[in-house]
Structure formats: structure tokens, C-alpha cells
Design a protein that fits this description.
14% strand, globular, 274 residues, binds zinc ion, two-stranded antiparallel sheet, alpha/beta, binds fe (iii) ion
């Protein structure tokens, strides 16, 4: 069975998220490791983590795809702010060790005028240091729409970061809205885009998907998510993804504008496409 889920609120703890996920037909999910628009993290609760790990195994969930804070910019210009972001990353990875074997996805960052090359070096630097303790987590770089000075709008950016880190613990999470807005035509040439990803990054690095339709036109570099089938991608694109021999086996996370009932309906819709 395909691993499909959505973003859930982490406010009631990890076990509560597992139960909520199961109640809406999900068998994976995403959650923010801390305030998505700030840096505040919850107090740690080892008993809750242990209970969640047991429940996930018992229920046969696929890997979870945690999401780092949007404000964590590893390649911001100010050295102090950059150091703070690197510390947040390291703390997030340490915390993920309480949920071993899952993924931690984040937005690589915005170089704010420093240039992509310098941005890539700074991101890789922070990752190398944060991964050094050998936590049981795989870090995923998210494909971005290429808004402003975002790093990660091209597959080449992701390849360069992965090569600079030089660790097997780094992979990629492909966001369907972002790649479309970023100029990869997954409507008319999904196979071509995947072949391109394989050529540049390597398909073995692709670990998870964010399934979002897009409010924008191709190559708009905008990044606004729509519900599945309500945007420019359309339902056929998601059918092709769900049925794809490689993509269909990856954990798939919805980040669409929904509350729980909407997510439940979308998960059922996606399962019906298989
Ligand atoms: Fe994201
Ligand atoms: Fe995303
Ligand atoms: Zn987005």
C-alpha cells in the first residue's frame, strides 16, 4: 500500500499525531519540528516518542517526513543569524534521534544576494557539522520553486549540496508544486523530469514527495499550493505520480490548503488513483 499522509499539528505530541493520521487513512505524516515561523521547539517527551515509535511499527507506517522551520536559513548573510540557524538544525537532528529511521526535510535556504555558490557552501557546512554525531536520521533537501534567491530551485543545486556534504544521510524530497513552478514540466513530461533528476542527482537520493497542486502557471517561480485537482497540475498528473514505478513507492505528504476532513478526502482520492 502506498504511503500517503499530510501535515499534522504537533501540539499534542507524537503519539497523538500517529492516532490522528490513522483516523484519516494516512500511513505516514509530516509535522513541524518547531514553530514553522519562529524557532520555538516543544519540550522533549521521551515516553511519548517511545510510544509513537511502537505505534508506528505496529500500524505499519512508512517513514515520517518531519519539516524544519521556514525561518531556518542556513545561508543567510549575517554570520550570527547563520550560526543560529545551524544550531537549530543541529538541535532538530538531535531531537529526531528519538524517532529513529525517519526523514527530516527542510528548505535549503535563500542566499540573499551572496550567490548560489556561496549559499551551497554555507548549507553544506551546517549539514556536515550537524550530521557529524551520526544521528539515525536522513536529511532531505526540498526542491524549491526558485522564488527570490532560493537555493534548490534547480536539481543541480541539490546535487552540489549533497556532494559537498559527502554523506549518505542526505537525500531529496520532491515537491510537485515547487518543481512545476520552478520550470520542470511534470504534466507533459513526468518521465523526462524524473530522468533528468536521475541524471543530475541520482534517483537513489529521492526519498519522499510533497504532493501539492499549484495555483500558478509553469515556470512562474511563485510557490502557492492548491488542493489536488484544483490547480494547474490537475488530477491526471497525480494519477501518473501515484502509478509511477519509483515515485509511487515513496512516502507522499500533502501540504494542500486543508483541515483534517479535507486531507482525509484527498488521501482517499489519491488511493483511488493507484
Ligand atoms: Fe516545505
Ligand atoms: Fe513542500
Ligand atoms: Zn511550497
Amino acid at each position: 500500500m502506498a504511503y500517503i499522509g499530510c501535515h499534522l499539528s504537533a501540539s499534542k505530541g507524537n503519539l497523538a499525531m500517529v492516532k490522528t493520521a490513522e483516523s484519516i487513512g494516512a500511513n505516514t505524516f509530516a509535522f513541524f519540528t518547531r514553530n514553522p515561523r519562529g524557532s520555538q521547539a516543544k519540550t522533549e517527551d521521551p515516553a511519548d516518542c517511545e510510544a509513537a515509535v511502537a505505534a508506528l511499527a505496529h500500524m505499519g507506517f512508512g517513514p515520517l517526513v518531519a519539516h524544519g522551520s521556514y525561518t531556518m536559513n542556513l545561508c543567510t548573510k549575517d554570520p550570527e543569524a547563520r550560526q543560529f540557524a545551524a544550531e537549530i538544525l543541529a538541535d532538530d537532528l538531535r531531537r529526531m534521534a528519538a524517532l529513529p529511521g525517519n526523514y527530516y526535510n527542510f528548505h535549503p535556504g535563500s542566499h540573499v544576494g551572496q550567490g548560489t555558490e556561496i549559499g551551497i557552501c554555507q548549507i553544506a557546512d551546517a549539514l556536515r557539522k550537524a550530521l557529524a554525531p551520526g544521528y539515525p536520521v536522513t536529511v532531505l533537501l526540498e526542491t524549491m520553486a526558485g522564488k527570490g534567491s532560493e537555493v534548490g530551485g534547480r536539481f543541480e543545486d541539490l546535487r552540489d549540496i549533497i556532494q559537498a556534504v559527502g554523506s549518505d544521510a542526505v537525500g531529496v524530497c520532491l515537491d510537485t508544486c515547487h518543481v512545476w513552478d520552478g520550470g520542470y514540466d511534470i504534466i507533459h513530461d513526468l518521465d523526462g523530469v524524473i530522468a533528468e533528476f536521475d541524471r543530475v542527482v541520482g534517483l537513489d537520493k529521492l526519498k519522499a514527495l510533497h504532493l501539492n497542486d499549484s495555483k500558478n502557471s509553469f515556470d512562474s517561480h511563485k510557490d502557492r499550493h492548491a488542493c489536488i485537482g484544483d490547480g494547474s497540475l490537475g488530477i491526471e498528473t497525480f494519477r501518473n505520480i501515484i502509478r509511477h514505478p519509483v515515485l509511487g513507492d515513496l512516502p507522499m505528504i500533502l501540504e494542500t490548503p486543508n483541515e483534517l476532513p479535507g486531507y482525509q478526502a484527498e488521501i482517499a482520492l489519491l488511493r483511488s488513483l493507484k
